[in-house]
C-alpha cells in the first residue's frame, strides 16, 4: 500500500510515524509530506530514510491512503485534491468533522458507519475521542441524558511551541522563547483551550459538545464543558459527570467498562490506583477510574478518564481507521 503522511515533521506527525511502524499496515511506499520549508529534508521510517516531498508531488503519486495532520487550512485545500485522484484521506484536523457529508469516526464506537465510498474521513478531537470510548457502551445500556465535562489537557495538545514554552519556563528562562499561551504554563493552569467563541465557550469546549453528538448519533444529549490547559505531557484528563435516563447498578457499570474494547479500568482507591497522565503516556488505551455514583442527582455517575492525546487522541485513532478500511477491503 502506498501511504502519504501529511505533516510528517510535526509533533503529531512524528507519533503518526511511530504508530504506523508499530501497526504493520503493509506499506510498500511511504511519502512523507510537509510544508515547503521542510521539502528535501530526510526523515526515518521503518529503518529507512525518506525525503520529504511537496503536497503536489504526493498528489501526483496517487497514494492509496493519506493521513493528514497539518491543520485545517491545509486539509480544506488539499484533502479534496487527494480524494480526486482516488486517495482515501484520514484527516486529523477540525476541517471536516462537522461536515454532514463526512464521517467522524472512533473505531471502537462507530466504525460501522464507514463504507468504500468514503474518501475523506474525519478524526475527532483528542478530548472527544477518549471520552466517547467509555461513554458509548454506557449510552447504549442506560441512555445518556446530560454530560458535565471538565478537561485537564496536556500542553502537547497545543503542539511543539507549547512544549518549548513549558521547557523554557521550567529551565528558568525569562525571555528568548515564543509564548504559545497568553500566560506562563509552568505552575499554572489556563481555563482557555482553543479560541473563545461568541457564546463565551472555547472551540475545544464546543468540540466536546458537537462531536459527541455526531459520534454517538444523539443530538438530544445535553452537554456542557470547561476545558483547561495544565502543565502535563502524558495525556489529557477529564472529569465527566453523567446523568442517565435510566437507573444503573454501579458494579454493572464497572463490569461493562472492563469489557469495552480500548478501555482499561483503574479503580482501586484502597491502593491509590486511578488513571494519571504519567501512566497513560505512550499507551493506546483509554484509562477510566474514580467510578462512583453522584449522590446529588438521580441516575448520575462520575468518571475520571485519561488517555495519551498524541496517540489514542490523534495518531492511533487515525491509524485504527486505516486498519479498519484495510480489513473491510475498502483500501
What would you note in describing this structure?
The chain is of the alpha/beta class and 331 residues long. It has two domains: 2-123 and 314-327, Rossmann fold (3-Layer(aba) Sandwich), CATH 3.40.50; 127-309, Dihydrodipicolinate Reductase, domain 2. It has helices at 11-23, 55-60, 72-84, 107-110, 126-142, 160-170, 203-216, 250-258, 277-280, 311-327; strands at 2-6, 29-33, 42-45, 48-51, 65-68, 88-91, 103-104, 120-122, 144-153, 222-229, 236-244, 263-265, 286-293, 300-307. The chain has a six-stranded parallel β-sheet, with helices on both faces. The protein is globular.
Q: How is the secondary structure organized here?
A:
Blueprint: E1 2-6, H1 11-23, E2 29-33, E3 42-45, E4 48-51, H2 55-60, E5 65-68, H3 72-84, E6 88-91, E7 103-104, H4 107-110, E8 120-122, H5 126-142, E9 144-153, H6 160-170, H7 203-216, E10 222-229, E11 236-244, H8 250-258, E12 263-265, H9 277-280, E13 286-293, E14 300-307, H10 311-327
Helix pairs in contact: 1-10, 5-7, 5-10
Amino acid at each position: 500500500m502506498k501511504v502519504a503522511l501529511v505533516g510528517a515533521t510535526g509533533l503529531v506527525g512524528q507519533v503518526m510515524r511511530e504508530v504506523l511502524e508499530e501497526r504493520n499496515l503493509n506499506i510498500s511506499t511511504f511519502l512523507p509530506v510537509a510544508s515547503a520549508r521542510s521539502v528535501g529534508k530526510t526523515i526515518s521510517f521503518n529503518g529507512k530514510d525518506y525525503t520529504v516531498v511537496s503536497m503536489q508531488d504526493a498528489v501526483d503519486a496517487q497514494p492509496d491512503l493519506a493521513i493528514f495532520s497539518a491543520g485545517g487550512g491545509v486539509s480544506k485545500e488539499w484533502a479534496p485534491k487527494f480524494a480526486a485522484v482516488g486517495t482515501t484521506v484520514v484527516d486529523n484536523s477540525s476541517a471536516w468533522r462537522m461536515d454532514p457529508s463526512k464521517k467522524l469516526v472512533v473505531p471502537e464506537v462507530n466504525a460501522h458507519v464507514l463504507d468504500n465510498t468514503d474518501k475523506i474521513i474525519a478524526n475527532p478531537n483528542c478530548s472527544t475521542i477518549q471520552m466517547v470510548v467509555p461513554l458509548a457502551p454506557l449510552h447504549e445500556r442506560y441512555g445518556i441524558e446530560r454530560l458535565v465535562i471538565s478537561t485537564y489537557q496536556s500542553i502537547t495538545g497545543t503542539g511543539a511551541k507549547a512544549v518549548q514554552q513549558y521547557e523554557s519556563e521550567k529551565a528558568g528562562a525569562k525571555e528568548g522563547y515564543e509564548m504559545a499561551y497568553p500566560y506562563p504554563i509552568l505552575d499554572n493552569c489556563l481555563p482557555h483551550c482553543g479560541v473563545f467563541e461568541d457564546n463565551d465557550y472555547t472551540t475545544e469546549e464546543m468540540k466536546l459538545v458537537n462531536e459527541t453528538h455526531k459520534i454517538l448519533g444523539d443530538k438530544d444529549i445535553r452537554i456542557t464543558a470547561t476545558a483547561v490547559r495544565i502543565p502535563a505531557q502524558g495525556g489529557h484528563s477529564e472529569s465527566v459527570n453523567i446523568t442517565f435516563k435510566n437507573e444503573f447498578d454501579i458494579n454493572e457499570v464497572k463490569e461493562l467498562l472492563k469489557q469495552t474494547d480500548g478501555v482499561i479500568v483503574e479503580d482501586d482507591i484502597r491502593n491509590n490506583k486511578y488513571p494519571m497522565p504519567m501512566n497513560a503516556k505512550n499507551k493506546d488505551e483509554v484509562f477510566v477510574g474514580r467510578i462512583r455514583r453522584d449522590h446529588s442527582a438521580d441516575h448520575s455517575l462520575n468518571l475520571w478518564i485519561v488517555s495519551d492525546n498524541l496517540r489514542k487522541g490523534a495518531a492511533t485513532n487515525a491509524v485504527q481507521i486505516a486498519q479498519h478500511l484495510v480489513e473491510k477491503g475498502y483500501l
